[in-house]
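Predict the structure of OBSCN protein.
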Amino acid sequence: EPDVTIVSGLKDTVVSEGDDVTFRCQVSHENARDVEWKLQDVALQNNEMNEISVEKGKIHTLTLRKVTEQDVGTVTFRVGPHTSTA
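Done. Here is the predicted structure for OBSCN protein.
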């Protein structure tokens, strides 16, 4: 299995309370396994508040819905040993 690397990392984002915010990270290969999103070191699951998806096979996206002050912090995307933060 090829080593999947991060081609385009996360970008810092400022958003108003109550808005949605989307983070994108592009990886080098499609169908990457061992992928994880975290907010403040807490692993995120795909649910009504966090939408996790993959576009075009290589662009991993995380949308945080209706953010609050408690959502302030570091977002981390990890694939294998590689990470990107914003």
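The domain at 6-85 is CATH 2.60.40.10 (Immunoglobulin-like).
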